[in-house]
Each structure stands twice: as structure tokens, then as C-alpha cells.
From TrEMBL:
Name under which the protein is recorded: ABC transporter substrate-binding protein
Keyword Nucleus annotated: no
PANTHER family with a match to the protein in the record: ABC TRANSPORTER, SUBSTRATE-BINDING LIPOPROTEIN, ABC TRANSPORTER, SUBSTRATE-BINDING LIPOPROTEIN-RELATED
InterPro entries per record: ABC_transpt-TYRBP-like (IPR007487)
Superkingdom: Bacteria
Native species: candidate division KSB3 bacterium
UniProt keyword annotations, A-Z: Signal
Signal peptide: 1-26
Length: 309
């Protein structure tokens, strides 16, 4: 399955390359302004690199991490450059640029929970979250004995997503058990109460749930004390005892953004304004699985990118 996944990603890259090659631009090449929240951060640096490598024309680069930018400086930047398209990487870049873009199309990526962003009909992008149905399918494939997956969510940010994911889980004969939380909720007590109803806990990127690092660490500590396996959306949580992580494949994000940009510059509207990431990166903490006594599908190990033993 790993070779199949790599083949599909390779085909996708070839498709993007073909898309770029099939478009020609009359006169001078289009002008793209790329605004990065912080180009020294790997998760922002890599999409910038693959975006530039995929495109065949120059890009004006702005790194907001180099200094403290004021709003009027960003406004002047957008006005002076007068780009045909803006690509923003990270939430900070999008939030600082979007109000000055006018009708100029913006393509965003690497923004956690993009539904929080003030998007318009001129906004396009690549979600930082994978398709929930695909993730649930991977959970089922890797851990066939898991039947009940629990999570904490806020209605404001992930309520609609939860209802949709719950239906997808039902279609796969699994149960997604959710507990709604608010800003003032005692999430650790919510988690303890949920423990008796679920087999694993799914940590999702909800800004109310993960409002700060301290809460995140406490959530993972409680899960460990309860011997409750955790599925997560980012590899950074693996050292804290997370059992299974399915995250986006970061290089693919930049290529997808380049594909969207190419379509827009050719006056072609993408079928979906915001696309799910095309690639994923899977990590299995086998050491934690053995500690908790969690059974897994050994035939599924070929689909895992990294195994922690």
C-alpha cells in the first residue's frame, strides 16, 4: 500500500506539471506575491519551496518572520506590488493580507482550521486538515478492533465537521462519540467522563480544545493515566505518547497551491475553492500500542511512513 500511495502522489505531481505546462500566458508573465508567516519554520518553509519549484514564473517573496510588520506596511506592499495573485502561508500571513487584497485572488495554505478565516468569493486554498472520512478509514484499517472513537469539540469551530464525520463513521460501522465543550469547560473532566464510552480518543485541531500548550499537555497526560490511546493530526504529538498520527504531507500542499494558482491565472475556477490535502504522512507508535495492549493489523504496517519501536 505504501508503494501505491507514493505512486498516486507521483501521478498527482505529474498532473500538476502537465497542468502548468498546458497553460501559456500572453505578454509578460503573471505576478505572484507570496507572503509567508515565517519562512524559518519548516511547516511554512517547505510549501514555499515546492510552490516555487512547481511554478515556471518568478514569485515576489515576503517573510513576515523577518521583522514586525505593521498593517499599513502590508497595505503599502500589496498596493505597490499590485500582484495578479497572492499566496499566503500560515494564518498570520492570510489575516494580515486579505483585507487589502480587494478582488485579487488569494490562495492560502498551512492555516489551522481554515473555517475561522474571513474568506470571500476570491479566496481559495488547501486545507490543513485531511478529509475526515479518509482518516476514519485509516483508523479502521490499522485498528480493526476499535469500534468507538471519542473526541471533544466546540460547536463554533468544529461542530458541523463533527456531525459530518459522525455520519461517515456510521457508514463504516463505527461510532464517533463527541462531547461538546465551551470556552469555560473543564475539558479534563469532560475527557474523564468520555473515557467509559470509547476505545480511543481522537485529538482534533479545535482552537477551543487546544487553546494553549498547557491544556494540550494536560489532555495527553490524562489520556496516558487512563490508558486511553490517542489518535492525532500531527506528528509533533508522538513524543507525548500519541499512538497514531495522520498528518498532511507538507510538500504536497505547496504543489496543490501552485496548481490552484495556475488555474486562477488562466481564468479557470477550481471545482472546489478549498481543497483537502492530497497526501498524508502516517506514524504508528508501536511502543505505545504494546504498552496499552492495543491490537493492530500487521498487514497495514506497509502503509505507515514511520514506526516508533
Amino acid at each position: 500500500m505504501k508503494s501505491t500511495k507514493r505512486t498516486l502522489q507521483f501521478i498527482m505531481v505529474l498532473g500538476l506539471t502537465g497542468l502548468l505546462a498546458s497553460h501559456t500566458f500572453a505578454g509578460s508573465p503573471p505576478k505572484i506575491l507570496l507572503v509567508n508567516s515565517d519562512a524559518t519554520v519548516e511547516k511554512y518553509q517547505i510549501p514555499q519551496k515546492t510552490f516555487q519549484q512547481t511554478l515556471s514564473f518568478p514569485v515576489v517573496l515576503v517573510n513576515l518572520g523577518e521583522k514586525k510588520w505593521r498593517l499599513h506596511e502590508v497595505e503599502e506592499l500589496v498596493y505597490d506590488e499590485d500582484p495578479d495573485l497572492i499566496y499566503t502561508i500560515g494564518s498570520k500571513a492570510f489575516l494580515m493580507v486579505h483585507k487589502f487584497a480587494g478582488k485579487t485572488p488569494i490562495v492560502f495554505s498551512s492555516a489551522v482550521n481554515w473555517l475561522r478565516l474571513p474568506v470571500t468569493k476570491h479566496t481559495y486554498g488547501v486545507s490543513n486538515e485531511l478529509h475526515s472520512g479518509m482518516e476514519i478509514m485509516l483508523f479502521r484499517y490499522m485498528f480493526p478492533h476499535v469500534q468507538k472513537i471519542g473526541l471533544l469539540y466546540s460547536w463554533k469551530y468544529t461542530g458541523k465537521w463533527f456531525k459530518h464525520a459522525q455520519k461517515q463513521a456510521e457508514d463504516m460501522e463505527m461510532a464517533l462519540v463527541g462531547e461538546e465543550i465551551a470556552e469555560d469547560s473543564d475539558v479534563l473532566e469532560n475527557l474523564r467522563a468520555l473515557r467509559h464510552e470509547i476505545d480511543v480518543f481522537w485529538l482534533i485541531p479545535d482552537p477551543v480544545l487546544l487553546k494553549d500548550k498547557e491544556r494540550l499537555i494536560n489532555i495527553l497526560k490524562v489520556c496516558d493515566s487512563l490508558k486511553l490511546p490517542v489518535f492525532s493530526y500531527h506528528k509533533a504529538f508522538i513524543p507525548f505518547g500519541v499512538l497514531f498520527s495522520v498528518s498532511v504531507d507538507i510538500p504536497t500542499i505547496g504543489r496543490q497551491a501552485a496548481g490552484i494558482a495556475t488555474q486562477l491565472l488562466a481564468d479557470e475556477r477550481p471545482e472546489e475553492s478549498v481543497q483537502f490535502p492530497a497526501g498524508s504522512y502516517i506514524i504508528l507508535n508501536l511502543k505505545k500500542a504494546q504498552e496499552y495492549g492495543v491490537s493492530y493489523n500487521e498487514e497495514a504496517l506497509d502503509s505507515v511512513n514511520t514506526i516508533i519501536r
